[in-house]
Every structure is written in structure tokens, then in C-alpha cells.
Write a structure and sequence with these properties.
The complex is a heterotrimer of chains A (405), B (96) and C (417). With 405 residues, chain A is α+β, with helices and mostly antiparallel strands. Chain A folds into 2 domains: 253 residues, Thiolase/Chalcone synthase (Peroxisomal Thiolase, Chain A, domain 1), CATH 3.40.47; 140 residues, Thiolase/Chalcone synthase (Peroxisomal Thiolase, Chain A, domain 1, 3-Layer(aba) Sandwich). Chain A is 32% helix and 21% strand. Chain A contains 13 helices and 17 strands. In chain A, the strands form 4 sheets. In chain A, strands 1, 2, 5, 6, 7, 10, 11, 12, 13, 16 and 17 form an 11-stranded mixed beta sheet that branches. Chain A has a two-stranded antiparallel sheet with strand order 3-4. A two-stranded antiparallel sheet of chain A has the order 8-9. In chain A, helix 2 packs across helix 5. By secondary structure, chain B is an all-alpha fold. Chain B has a single domain, classed as Non-ribosomal Peptide Synthetase Peptidyl Carrier Protein, Chain A, CATH 1.10.1200.10. Chain C is of the alpha/beta class. Chain C has one domain: Peroxisomal Thiolase, Chain A, domain 1 (3-Layer(aba) Sandwich), CATH 3.40.47. Helix content of chain C is 32%, strand content 18%. Chain C has an 11-stranded mixed beta sheet, with helices on both faces. Chain C has a two-stranded antiparallel sheet with strand order 2-3. In chain C, a hairpin with a 4-residue loop joins strand 14 and strand 15. The longest helix of chain C has 15 residues. Chain C is globular, with a radius of gyration of 20 Å. Classes of the chains: A alpha+beta (405), B mainly alpha (96), C alpha/beta (417). Chains in contact: A-B, A-C, B-C. Chains A and C meet through helix 3, helix 4, helix 5, strand 6 and helix 6 of A and helix 4, helix 5, strand 5, helix 6 and helix 7 of C.
């Protein structure tokens, strides 16, 4: 199993796509503006209620042909296509032209799985009958379709895991991958998050009051996610994918890889006071449990890539936990207002903070909530030790630390 | 004899239902093998999708794997297979 | 070589199961050891528009009322968990040191289908019915119901989900992250998965016959299987009953095809070997296999190849059974219910038969337990395999408690029953 005593896990590559387009640079440009690229929700199916959210940070159709030929992707859900694209971008970024097949694992988180294929299959079955279910759609409608397709596309034959834990998924996936690497089960892991949302997904999220809705401000109708802001009324849903190449440090050094970041400790906990589709109130217990796992590494955190997304209760929970754990708050960023919730935007943003990037003030965050009292950082950010946080609706909380190499 | 299917229609269905991207209707020869090493690079899931399409479009069921394998030898063979079944259906109807 | 086992191994101190064979693990065990199938015509939804009619559906009337307000999968998960943690003190469960490691591939998909059906007819469905819609539904329901503050995580890897979750629980216990782990899975029948497997012609219209020559497909099932796990030192200190030891886990991916297994079983071979390696075990140590055994032509064939590759000449005399023949394929929960059955097999030294009248497919060259439950030696090391869509494979190894003797000593013990 493990040779030598070096238990370190490093990040050597990243591939991402989202409403901002394809690639790390595209993400950086988007974050620098502080403005999310959004699309109108397609309401033609009649799922949506009056007054519901109209905007989403949807990735939509992008030209993936540089990474995935149309032919190879012909039977894939958009979910899988995006996963394979991100995986290939990440491996290319890492300079890994050949992976050690049996020693390469894949760990992907998703909140919803392939939304489009699942909905289409459901419609076939409900409207036409069970006999009309398409084998195409079924084979690629499972939550682990992305991870499976990534394995087939890259030849990765190690553990193939798919984690479903909503907003907390991306951090849990990286933590899981780092654990497996430290245990010596693999030398390389493709870890991250992919999501594909469809009009039906948005309609359901909206019914649970999760999304930022149009509201009147000074005579103007606005619909914006406003992390930590007094006027916040929900998050901006989005999708896309982020995949990191994680490696055992020895493996990266041996092949002369450029190391982008070091994966530190992680923490996870559950809040039983959380309603099934919302955030709870036991920030004290959560903070205690999360801190216990991180120990020393918490002291060196200089930047937080926050879970804050504009969720009314969720942002408050995040603030309470951060204040409890880090009485002297370091600089705090809330990039999900640009990347949208889902798709792993937190991971990409963390990597940008560590490699040096510009973070614009999130649009619409003009009035920090006085009961929270957090003003988001902006401008050039060059973090040494990042804390990423996530609080999933339903009660799971997760932390992950990343540092400069 | 009423509804009969043309090879052209079948080729369009193939490209459409199997979401073929690098193969156009014109590039599929009538006697082109569909499966196997000489074929269009289709697999068992494609075969099942095709079976579903034929069932949905023409009401013809292919429940036996063996029957399916033979019928899918080429577009030409498939066409003949479908038309034979359609005629049989017609003649049953006219007897009634 | 079996040198030393882990200093403080992880043990099973409780089990729970909900299936077509009853609301409890006891009922399940009674039925499977008698070779009784839990198979009926589906009544959950109309089958006229589907290709087949049979399933292993849970009789929810037989379940305790307590969780009746939940979605089916949530209810199965909570019911099974309640049984599993019955003897775990409440303050330990709620200490913040208990984690929930669950597998699910459906979440509340059946309720989701009803909700969508209403939407399509311009009606509003009941939002409460779909709070557990996503795959983390059952795991979250359990964590909330039992007030667990430790990690809660759901793996959704199709048919390996619960097996993967159990492996993750093992890690969390060994690392000291938790003191108790609730591990397993829950899934529910729904039209999408039923129609989906039928679209692949993977469901047998007749009762499933795993490892038989004429096998035609699987039996869809639903339910939950849950283990309560803790480190042995804690179990002994609090006087808990130890049913079995959870030794190790192994995972891999075929990287071959989205829905068909690698014909040579390469991924399964890797997963089994990884599990043996992590458990400091060799193939000779294994005394039985609870196979994935879905009854599809492809799975049973490739799984057999994998077993031959790992166990060599021993394979023909290593008892193998498919409990899916009776309880059905619980998809995301299969690993959970099969782990429960593996624990019971170890505890009772008895391996349930693979239901069906026909002889086993001789070409597979396996020793399939047929017709009657097979007596096992007093000390056992059993493997539970799960092989899934996307080619991912997951294997766990369980063994008799307090027995980590080297193979040679143990084989002497086997002669004395």
C-alpha cells in the first residue's frame, strides 16, 4: 500500500466549466467582475409558479469539441459530457498525458445527477408508458453516470465514487479523495463536482424557497443572490463542473509536476435541527465539531471561501460558525454569487485565491446585514491558507483547507 | 399494401434515434453492417434503443435477441424485415 | 498472508432490514434460510404499461407507523436503523460522535414521479412528499431522526451504493472520526428504474434464477439494510453483543462500459483483491461468498470469471449464494441488506440457498448453494460483492468475531463442528 512516510496530497491540475464558459481563465474573468452570467429560465413546460425565480447561472450548451468529440459524447447526458470535459481539461492542466490506470480513482459529487435525462425518462414513462423508456436515457441517468464516463474516457480503474450531499458535496468529494490517496489506495484522483440543472430542477428548488426571487428595491425589480446582505432572499442556482487532479505528493514530485496547492485537513458534521430542505440553527455544535477536526490548521487560515450564497438562514449559519471558529475573521469571499450554487464553484475559486486572482465585489451586495456584520473582501487576493466551507440544505456541513505549496 | 418503409426513412431514424454525430444518412450504405467490426460502431445499448424505436414507430416488437441480431444485419435487411411484418399485419387486418 | 488483524477491529453490534420478506432482519432471515422468495405482482403502480409485472415490493402495512409520514425510502431506512441501533445508548448516538454512512440510488423517486405527474396536469403536489427526493434523502432522514451530529454522507454509485457506504464507515471508525457508525442503504421501487431496467431487458418476467443456465434477468426490489458499527474495544466496554467483525473493503472500476460489466470481471477481481489486501487476508481465508448474483446473463458470467481468477482451484468448492434470488435487487440498498445477510450467515453458520429449482449453470464452475441452506464451519470469513452500472465494483469482508487466527489454526478448528 503506502510506500514511504509522505502523506501529503497536492493539487496539480484543474478543469472547470460553468455559466462563465470553459476553463480556469474564464472563471477568473467572471470572478473579477463580481457579476454572474445568467440566463432566463425556460418556463415553457409550465412547471414554474408566478413570482418564482427567473434567472439561473446555467452552463447551457458550450462547445466542448476540443475535449470531447460529438461522436464520443453522443449518448452522454450533458452531466457526463461536462464531467468528461472537466476531467480532460484537468489532466491536461496537470500535464498528465498518461495516468496510472489501476492507481487512479475518481470521486465526484453531485446534488442532482443528470437532470435532463432523468426528466426525459420520467416523461417517457409517465406520459407514454413504461415500455417507452429509452435505454439510452436510462444508462446515463444515474447519479454516478459522470464518474463512470470519466473512468471510461480516461481509463481510471481505481475506486469510482459518487457522493450526493447537495451543497456540501464538492468539499466532501475532495476530502474523500485526499483520504484515499493518503491511505495509499491510489496515486492520482480526479475529484470534484458536476451538476446539470434543468427547468424542472429550478421549479422544485424555487418551491422550497431556495432561490433568489425577483424583488423590488428602490422602484427597481432585482433578482440577485446577495451573500451576507440584508436584502438577500435566496441563492442563485447554477450548474457546471469542477474537477481537480489530486496526487500523492511523491507521485507528483517524481514526475516533475507543477504543484498548485496542498490539500489540508477537512471536517464534516450534521445538524439535526436542520429542516429536510433548509438550514438549522445549531451553529454552536457545528462550530465545535468542525473545529475539533481542523485543529492547528485553523489558526493559519487567512482567507475563507465561504458557503454564503444569499440563502437567508444559510448565510446566518455560516456567519455564526465562522465567528465562533475564527474570532478574528480573515478575509472572506463568497464566489457562489458569481458561479452559482452547484457545479463546484467553491473549489475553482479556492484554487484561484491560492494562485492569485482578482475577486470583484459581488453585484448587489450593497448593504451588509448588520446582524451578520461581514463585509466581503474584494480586489487582488493572494491567499496562503484557504478555508472552504459548505452547508448543505438538510443539515450536512463541511470544511476543507487548501494551502499554497 | 399500405404503409411500407424505405431504407431512406430507416437511415434517418438511425441517425436521429442513435444520435449519430460523425455518420450522416448519405454515408450509410444500404448493405452496410450495423453492428460488429465492419459496422457503425454501435453496441448493445444502441441495439436496444433501435428495438424501442422500431416498436414505437412501426408497432413491431422484437423480443428475441436472435431475431434482432439477424434483422439488424444491415439497413436493407432491417427494411425487408419491417416491411414483411407490416404486410403481415395488413393482411391480418384485411382478413378481419 | 494473514499476519495480524487490526488492533481494534470494527465490529457489528446491531442490524436492521426492511424488505419484501418482512419488516425486520429476523423475518428476512427466517424466509431466506427457508428459500422463500419475497416476490409478487407489483401493486405500487400499474404494470400494464410496463414490460413485466413482478417485483419484491415491501408491504408498508407491515411496517411500524412511526415513520409512515416519510417517503418510502426514508421510512425503510429509519425503520431498519431503529432496529440496528436499538441497543446503542441514546447519549452515544447523539454525542456528535456517531456518523451516518448511507447509500441510495433512488432517494424519493417514486414520490417524485407522483409529484411530476401532478405538475404535468397543472396540479400542485405535496411538497412534504419530496423532501427526501435527492439521493441523500434516506441518509439525512436517519441522521436527523436519530440526532447524529457526526459526519453524514450519502454515496450514490448505483448497485454498489450501500456497500461503498459501509466501506466508508469502516474508514471513519478506524481513523477515529466517529465512535459509532450507522451504515447501509435504502432504495424504493419506482416506475423510472423499473422501466429503465426493463428497457435493457434486464428484468426476468419470471422469478429470477441467478447462476442458472436459463437465467434471464433480475428481480427488482426495495427496502433497507443497516449495520450499527463500532470499534471492538467500545463494544466490549459497554457490554454490546458482537455479531461479526467488519474487516475490510475494496473498490474499483471496470472503465469499460456504462451498463455492461467487463466480461472478464477485471474490475471485480481488483476490488476483491484490494479488500483482501486491506484485510491482511489471502484467498484461502475466505469461507463463503454472498455474490452480487443478479441473475442477468452478463453479471453472473463475469462475476464467476472474477471468482475463478481470485480463488483459483478452490473456486469450485467455495460456497456461493445469491440472496437476490429471494429478496430481489435492492439497487442502492443491495449492499446494505446483503451485508446484514452476510452478518447473519456468519452469526448462524448458515448460508441461505439461491432460490430456484434448476441446477446451477455448470459452465460457471461455482459451488452455488441450492435448495437448502448450507451449514458453514463455526468460524467464517465471508465476502459480499456488489458490481454496478458504470462498471464500479465494491466488496466488503466480514468475519466471525474475535477470531483472527492464522489460516492453519483456523482450518483445524473447522473440522470440529
Amino acid at each position: 500500500m503506502t510506500n514511504g512516510t509522505n502523506n501529503q496530497v497536492v493539487v496539480t491540475g484543474i478543469g472547470c466549466l460553468g455559466p462563465f464558459g470553459l476553463g480556469f481563465e474564464a472563471l477568473q474573468q467572471a470572478l473579477a467582475t463580481g457579476v454572474a452570467t445568467t440566463k432566463d429560465i425556460d418556463r415553457s413546460a409550465g412547471y414554474h409558479r408566478k413570482g418564482s425565480a427567473t434567472q439561473v447561472a446555467a452552463t447551457g450548451d458550450q462547445d466542448l469539441t476540443q475535449w470531447l468529440s460529438e461522436d464520443a459524447g453522443r449518448r452522454m447526458s450533458q452531466f457526463s459530457q461536462h464531467a468528461v470535459t472537466c476531467a480532460r481539461m484537468a489532466l491536461d492542466h496537470a500535464g498528465l498525458t498518461e495516468i496510472p490506470s489501476e492507481r487512479t480513482a475518481v470521486t465526484i459529487a453531485t446534488a442532482f445527477g443528470p437532470g435532463g435525462f432523468t426528466e426525459r425518462l420520467a416523461l417517457q414513462v409517465l406520459q407514454k408508458g413504461g415500455k417507452f423508456a429509452s435505454p439510452f436515457l436510462f444508462t446515463d441517468c444515474v447519479a454516478n453516470a459522470a464518474a463512470g464516463q470519466v473512468a471510461i474516457a480516461t481509463g481510471a480503474r481505481g475506486a469510482n465514487l459518487t457522493i450526493c450531499q447537495r451543497e456540501a458535496g464538492p468539499l466532501l468529494a475532495v476530502a474523500q479523495a485526499a483520504y484515499d490517496l493518503r491511505m495509499g489506495r491510489a496515486d492520482v484522483c480526479l475529484a470534484g463536482a458536476v451538476d446539470e440543472l434543468q427547468p424542472l430542477s429550478y421549479a422544485i428548488l424555487d418551491r422550497f424557497r431556495a432561490l433568489a426571487r425577483p424583488s423590488l428595491h428602490n422602484g427597481k425589480t432585482e433578482e440577485l443572490p446577495r451573500p451576507f446582505d440584508a436584502k438577500r432572499n435566496g441563492y442563485l442556482a447554477g450548474d457546471g463542473g469542477t474537477i481537480l487532479v489530486l496526487e500523492r505528493e511523491q507521485h507528483a514530485i517524481a514526475r516533475g509536476a507543477r504543484i498548485l496547492a496542498r490539500v489540508g485537513d477537512s471536517a464534516r458534521a450534521f445538524d439535526p435541527t436542520a429542516p429536510r430542505t433548509g438550514h438549522g440553527h445549531d451553529s454552536a455544535a457545528l462550530a465545535t465539531r468542525l473545529q475539533q477536526r481542523l485543529g492547528e490548521q485553523l489558526r493559519t487560515v487567512d482567507t475563507v471561501i465561504s458557503a454564503a450564497s444569499g440563502a437567508r438562514r444559510g448565510d446566518m449559519l455560516e456567519a455564526e460558525i465562522l465567528r465562533s471558529a475564527l474570532p478574528e475573521l480573515p478575509q472572506i469571499l463568497a464566489p457562489k454569487s458569481v458561479t452559482g450554487e452547484f457545479g463546484g464553484g467553491t473549489l475553482g475559486s479556492a484554487m484561484l485565491a491560492l494562485t492569485g486572482a482578482n475577486f470583484g465585489t459581488p453585484q448587489g451586495c450593497t448593504q451588509p446585514d448588520p446582524t451578520i456584520g461581514i463585509e466581503l473582501a474584494n480586489g487582488p487576493i493572494h491567499a496562503r491558507h484557504v478555508l472552504c466551507s459548505a452547508h448543505a440544505a438538510g443539515g450536512v456541513s463541511s470544511w476543507l483547507t487548501l494551502s499554497q505549496p | 399494401m399500405t404503409n411500407q418503409v424505405s431504407v431512406e426513412q430507416l437511415k434517418i431514424m438511425l441517425v436521429d434515434k442513435l444520435n449519430l454525430k460523425s455518420i450522416t444518412v448519405d454515408q450509410i450504405a444500404d448493405d452496410n453492417a450495423l453492428f460488429g467490426p465492419e459496422g457503425l460502431g454501435l453496441d448493445s445499448v444502441d441495439a436496444l434503443e433501435l428495438v424501442l424505436a422500431i416498436e414505437s414507430e412501426y408497432g413491431i416488437q422484437i423480443n428475441d435477441e436472435e431475431v434482432g441480431r439477424e434483422a439488424f444485419a444491415s439497413v436493407q435487411v432491417l427494411c425487408a424485415f419491417i416491411n414483411e411484418r407490416l404486410s403481415a399485419g395488413d393482411s391480418e387486418a384485411s382478413d378481419a | 498472508m494473514n499476519t495480524s488483524s487490526h488492533e481494534d477491529p470494527v465490529v457489528v453490534t446491531g442490524i436492521g432490514a426492511v424488505s419484501s420478506l418482512g419488516a425486520t432482519a429476523e423475518s428476512l432471515w427466517q424466509n431466506v434460510t427457508a428459500g422463500t422468495r419475497g416476490i409478487n405482482e407489483l401493486s405500487l403502480f400499474k404494470t400494464e404499461s410496463h414490460r413485466t409485472k413482478l417485483a419484491a415490493q415491501v408491504d408498508t402495512d407491515a411496517l411500524p407507523e412511526q415513520f409512515a409520514h416519510m417517503s418510502r425510502a426514508d421510512r425503510f431506512g429509519c425503520t431498519a436503523t431503529e432496529a440496528a441501533v436499538r441497543n446503542v445508548p441514546g447519549d452515544l448516538l447523539q454525542s456528535g460522535r456517531t456518523g451516518v454512512f448511507f447509500g441510495s440510488s433512488t432517494g424519493a423517486l417514486f414520490e417524485g414521479e407522483r409529484f411530476l405527474h401532478k405538475l404535468l396536469h397543472n396540479k400542485e403536489g405535496d411538497l412534504h412528499s419530496i423532501v427526501g427526493l435527492q439521493n441523500d434523502g434516506p441518509g439525512n432522514a436517519v441522521a436527523k431522526q436519530f440526532r447524529c451530529g457526526g459526519p453524514a454522507i450519502t454515496y450514490s454509485t448505483a448497485c454498489t451504493s450501500a456497500n461503498v457506504a459501509i466501506g466508508a464507515a469502516l474508514d471513519a471508525l478506524h481513523s477515529g472520526e466517529v465512535d459509532v457508525a450507522i451504515a447501509g442503504g435504502a432504495d424504493e421501487l419506482c416506475e423510472i428504474t423499473y422501466a429503465g431496467f426493463n428497457s435493457l431487458r434486464a428484468i426476468d418476467a419470471e422469478p429470477t434464477r441467478p447462476f442458472r443456465k436459463d437465467r434471464k434477468g433480475l428481480l427488482m426490489g426495495e427496502g433497507a439494510g443497516v449495520l450499527a458499527l463500532e470499534r471492538r474495544s467500545q463494544a466490549i466496554a459497554r457490554g454490546a453483543t458482537v455479531l461479526a467483525e467488519l474487516v475490510s473493503a475494496g473498490r474499483s472500476c471496470d472503465a469499460n462500459h456504462v451498463s455492461a460489466p467487463d466480461p472478464e470481471g477485471r474490475g471485480a477481481i481488483m476490488a476483491i483483491r484490494q479488500a483482501l489486501l486491506e484485510g491482511n487476508l489471502s484467498p484461502e481465508d475466505i469461507t463463503f461468498i454472498n455474490a452480487h448474483g443478479t441473475g442477468t446473463p452478463h453479471n453472473d458470467a463475469s462475476e464467476s470469471k472474477a471468482l475463478h481468477a481470485v480463488f483459483g482451484d478452490r473456486t469450485g468448492s467455495l460456497p456461493v449464494t445469491s440472496t437476490k434470488s429471494m429478496v430481489g435487487h435492492l439497487l442502492g440498498a443491495a449492499g446494505g441488506i446483503e451485508a446484514v445477510l452476510t452478518v447473519l450467515s456468519i452469526h448462524h453458520h448458515l448460508l441461505p440457498p439461491t432460490a430456484g429449482d434448476d441446477p446451477a449453470d455448470a459452465e460457471l464452475g461455482l459451488d452455488i448453494v441450492l435448495h437448502e441452506a448450507r451449514a458453514l464451519p463455526p468460524i467464517n470469513v465471508g465476502i459480499s460483492t456488489n458490481l454496478a452500472f458504470g462498471g464500479n465494483n465494491s466488496v466488503i469482508v466480514l468475519r466471525s468475531p474475535q477470531h483472527s487466527m492464522p489460516h492453519t489454526l483456523r482450518s483445524r478448528g473447522q473440522d470440529a463442528k
